[in-house]
Amino acid sequence: MSEKTLAIIKPDAVKKRVIGRIIQRIEDEGFNILGLKMVQLTLEEAKKFYAVHKDKPFYDSLTEFMSSGPIVVLLLEGEQAIKHWREVMGATNPAEARPGTLRREFGFSIERNTVHGSDSPQTAETEIKFFFN
Question: Among 6, 21, 56, 70, which one is most buried in terms of CB atoms within 10 A?
């Protein structure tokens, strides 16, 4: 089943200059890129985007990090896009991510882990609307 998902190349990956390598991987995995843009979130926008985590201990550091530099947001489409993209990303903690995943290859820590992806169809719909209205 073809579906859409949101992918974000986080500030750490932008700073490392690996945007092109990540986009190449996205294309190599068979995703269609329906939208792509570089944006700089304000702290308020990051807090709104990650509002689902507002009661978690990492919320403040996450939103500060995500507003610390430019990000690249992508609207991806493909067969089981949400599941597939999450497999390509790898585990949240790069140290636990499978070899060959983006987080294992480029990630630094649980927070500075290179990429973000929607975790469900409902989340994907909300996240896509946040960046591509």
Answer: 6
